[in-house]
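Bumping my old thread because nobody answered last time. Still need a sequence for this structure:
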């Protein structure tokens, strides 16, 4: 059954390839856009039966496509969305997959697009209300749910390790050759990713360090 689809991908060659593939299988692409802002506008103007979006795209060239997908699922409950990515963006991936009890959503790595029949079958399953998640995505998210430290970047792990040594913020900045503001930002990210309650830095340093030490 033909679907009305909106495609969001900032790489023009891949965007046109996706459009051509969808059309070859009889689907109607109502909009093909190159940034998250245009994706939001296109869906709000004419909600489709399926959204296929990249994760990393303008305007910030970060996880804008994934953020837009989460926002659109909040505005349009049940909107089928398939996210394509070269990597797993963990925090927003979990929000997307948790939205609307995980119905009508997919998260696939771009390398899977080459298996055309399987890829198109995955899109159709999501459009019909199913859930399709790349095995690599499942593996990473399972690790994340079991070990919150997996959420931390390499730099954040480095900062946490120095915190475990009792270093002050000034010492951290000097050791890592970064500014005090950068240290504060990394520490704030650590607290947020470890789901530590909002409190004074001193109080939250203790449980953060305990997590690092495996206590």
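Sorry it took so long. Here it is:
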């Amino acid at each position: 059954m033909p679907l009305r689809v909106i495609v969001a991908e900032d790489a023009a060659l891949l965007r046109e390839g996706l459009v051509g593939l969808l059309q070859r299988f009889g689907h109607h692409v109502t909009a093909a856009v190159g940034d998250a802002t245009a994706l939001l506008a296109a869906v709000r103007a004419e909600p489709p039966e399926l959204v296929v979006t990249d994760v990393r795209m303008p305007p910030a060239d970060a996880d804008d496509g994934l953020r837009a997908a989460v926002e659109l699922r909040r505005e349009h409950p049940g909107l089928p969305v398939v996210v394509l990515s070269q990597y797993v963006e963990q925090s927003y991936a979990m929000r997307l997959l948790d939205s609307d009890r995980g119905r009508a959503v997919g998260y696939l790595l771009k390398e899977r697009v080459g298996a055309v029949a399987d890829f198109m079958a995955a899109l159709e399953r999501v459009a019909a209300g199913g859930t399709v998640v790349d095995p690599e995505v499942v593996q990473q998210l399972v690790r994340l749910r079991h070990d919150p430290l997996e959420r931390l970047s390499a730099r954040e792990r480095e900062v946490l390790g120095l915190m475990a040594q009792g270093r002050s913020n000034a010492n951290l900045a000097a050791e890592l050759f970064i500014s005090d503001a950068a240290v504060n930002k990394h520490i704030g990210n650590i607290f947020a990713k470890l789901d530590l309650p909002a409190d004074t830095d001193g109080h939250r340093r203790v449980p953060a360090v305990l997590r690092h030490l495996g206590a």
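The mean pLDDT is 84. Let me know if any region looks off to you.
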